Amino acid sequence: QVQLVESGGGLVQAGGSLRLSCAASRSIFSISAAGWHRQAPGKQREWVAGITSVGSTNYADSVKGRFTISRDNAKNTLYLEMNGLKPEDTGVYFCKVDNGLRVSWGQGTQVTVSA
């Protein structure tokens, strides 16, 4: 099973930017769908952005135009560039990989946006 480790979270003021990374223990992103999800305190985990094995991307309406998902297959790393952050973007961000046989999740990284 692939291991996923997120990083890049932190505390930022509203309007600021962060770049999250998700490092995989082996080459996986070119053959899998991947995505970012988040969970705010007291709320269910929600999907944020996704990228297919061929590189097509899509976004939740709440982040469209502000967030960008990308990957570097050579580095086995998935990214989430977040701009124009809002307090409602606060939560734990998780990366997810689905190779069609197994779904893997990272442990998450905390993002806190202050007003």
How does this structure look, described?
The structure is a single chain. By secondary structure, the protein is mainly β. The chain is built from no helices and eleven strands. It has strands spanning 4-7, 10-13, 18-24, 33-39, 46-51, 57-59, 67-72, 77-82, 91-98, 103-105, 109-114. The strands form two sheets. Strands 2, 4, 5, 6, 9, 10 and 11 form a seven-stranded mixed sheet that branches. Strands 1-3-8-7 form a four-stranded antiparallel sheet, with no helix packed on it.
Topology, pairings included?
Elements: E1 4-7, E2 10-13, E3 18-24, E4 33-39, E5 46-51, E6 57-59, E7 67-72, E8 77-82, E9 91-98, E10 103-105, E11 109-114
Parallel strand pairs: 2-11
Antiparallel strand pairs: 1-3, 3-8, 4-5, 4-9, 5-6, 7-8, 9-10, 9-11
Outline of this structure?
The chain is an all-beta fold.
Structural class, from helix and strand content? mainly beta
Order of helices and strands: EEEEEEEEEEE
Largest pleated sheet = 7 strands, mixed
- Summed over residues and divided by their number, the pLDDT gives a mean of 96
- Distance between termini? 39 Å
Our Rg estimate from Cα atoms comes to: 13 Å
> Counting H and I runs of at least 4 residues, what is the number of helices?
0
Strand content: over 45%
Report helical residue fraction.
Answer: under 10%
Total DSSP E strands:
11
Principal-axis shape: globular
Oligomer: single chain
pLDDT < 50 stretches: none
